Amino acid sequence: MKFITNDMQTESGDKTIDESRQGEAVMVEPKRGHGKKLLLESYGCAMNFSDSEIVASILTEEGFGTTRNAEEADVILLNTCSIREKAEDRIRNRLLAFKKMKRKNPSLIVGVLGCMAERLKETLLEQEKLVDLVVGPDAYRDLPNLIEQVGTGQKAVNVLLSREETYAEISPVRLNSNGINAYISIMRGCDNMCSFCVVPFTRGRERSRDPESIVNEAIELANNGYKEVTLLGQNVDSYKWNLTKKGEVKDENLPTVSFSELMELVAKACPELWIRFSTSHPKDLTDDVAEVIAKYDNICNYIHLPIQSGNNEILKKMNRGYTREWYLNRIEALRRIAPKCAISTDIITGFCGETEEQHADTLSLMKEVGFDMAYMFKYSERPKTLAERKYEDDVPEEVKGRRLSEVIDLQRA
Ligand code: SAH
Ligand code: SF4
Ligand code: F3S
């Protein structure tokens, strides 16, 4: 049985990317050379690592070569994470080191991409004067222009979020790939507004990617010898193609596709690929997902289903949209329909106002479910979130830490 330690949790963005890969640099061959070298480092969750493959695709088309060595770079880009304060602290330290390098090499261009760029917008550039370039997750197509703009001595910012951008037709460059597993982004953004979470602010509105482009990407990976793909989204269960939020058909001429149908399409098109997916939201997990897991041998018997807390009042304050009873009912459905399915979760300790009794409910839920694996975090208040505006972050740091140790010890046991 696996468990994840406290230290790993406080640093990395989320589950699919482990601590050893945080800050990993991208290495690819340029399409045509102008001799300029790019250092592109990725932090945070799998979505960010997947986005870096899009960025690398766009910039190698423009002739950039890549390097792991900051001393050698003409452009340094950090694809950043804002999920907890510590994730941002680590990136700030990295930017301070690059700022020193810039004193020696004034033509060096330093930029932030991803969630921290979106959250802090111009601040990193104007107030903190740490970077030349700030580009949010929906503006990567504009990177070549923005880099050119910085080259002419201007600062450049594009943090516009989009309701449509899915980078559907950009073929990601597979980075540092072992040629075995790859990510396929199936949707972007999140509409859930969990009160503790910064992602809806940094990634914008939820939108699903064209299923045909997803299936084609999977087929291409299979043809190139890949063995496993992970379908990625902040909330894959709410994947919907050609359907409105209310379930109405948008375009009569197009097929409608739900998440379970998408998995089925990929599973059938690529019988030789193992298919994984992340992350599922308990409020949207329907039986048909469990049914396709059970039906197709090439869909992995594994689901990551974050509970966050075992107490109903805390779940309500977190705005998670389900109760403990609902969650247990979903676990029961999974075990009934797909009995071989392993289950992992995420847990936050010390959320606003959490009492010892409420914390005990999380421990009892863990005992009841017996998770195969868990990612466990201390609550970290994030600016502008609902929790920051509405509730006091009043659980002392040492209590959050002690409760986290209890949760980790129980998971280990
Ligand atoms: N869409 C994913 C979440 C990605 S963030 C999902 O719903 O599972 C990954 C995990 O980070 C979350 O599940 C949560 O447990 C944790 N997390 C998010 N915001 C946090 C915060 N402010 N403090 C501590 N942990 C947080
Ligand atoms: Fe954040 Fe909730 Fe969306 Fe996950 S589902 S990204 S925790 S708002
Ligand atoms: Fe971090 Fe953004 Fe992912 S905040 S966890 S990199 S979506």
Which key terms come to mind for this protein?
3 domains, seven-stranded mixed sheet, Rossmann fold, three-stranded parallel sheet, disordered N terminus, globular, alpha/beta, binds S-adenosyl-L-homocysteine, Transcription Regulator spoIIAA, 15 helices, binds iron/sulfur cluster, binds FE3-S4 cluster, 413 residues
Structure description:
- With 413 residues, the chain is α/β, with parallel strands linked by helices.
- It has 3 domains: 19-158, Rossmann fold; 178-300, Transcription Regulator spoIIAA (2-Layer Sandwich); 305-413, Transcription Regulator spoIIAA (2-Layer Sandwich).
- It is 38% helix and 16% strand.
- It contains 15 helices and 17 strands.
- The chain has helices at residues 6-11, 46-61, 85-104, 114-120, 123-126, 143-151, 199-203, 211-223, 259-269, 287-295, 312-317, 324-337, 356-369, 386-390, 397-412; strands at 24-25, 37-42, 65-66, 75-80, 109-113, 133-135, 156-158, 181-185, 187-188, 207-208, 228-232, 240-241, 257-258, 274-278, 302-304, 342-349, 373-378.
- Strands 1, 2, 3, 4, 5, 6 and 7 form a 7-stranded mixed sheet that branches. Strands 8-11-14 form a 3-stranded parallel sheet, with helices on both faces. It has a 3-stranded parallel sheet with strand order 15-16-17.
- Strand 6 (133-135), helix 6 and strand 7 (156-158) form a beta-alpha-beta unit.
- The site of S-adenosyl-L-homocysteine has 17 residues, from strand 16.
